Amino acid sequence: MPHLAVNEVRAKYGAHEVLRGINLTIEKGEIAALIGPSGSGKSTVLRALVGLTPITSGGVDIAGQSINYKSAAAVRGARDRMAIVFQQYNLFQNMTVMRNVTLAPTKIKGRAKGEVEAEAARLLDLVGLAHKHDAYPDQLSGGQQQRVAIARALALKPQILLLDEVTSALDPELVTEVLDTIRRLASEGMTMIIVSHEMAFVREVANKVVFMDSGEIIETGSPKEMFDNPKTERARDFFGKILRH
Question: To bridge 177 with a disulfide, which of 99, 143, 151, 226 should be the other Cys (CB 3.0-4.6 Å)?
Answer without folding.
Answer: 143
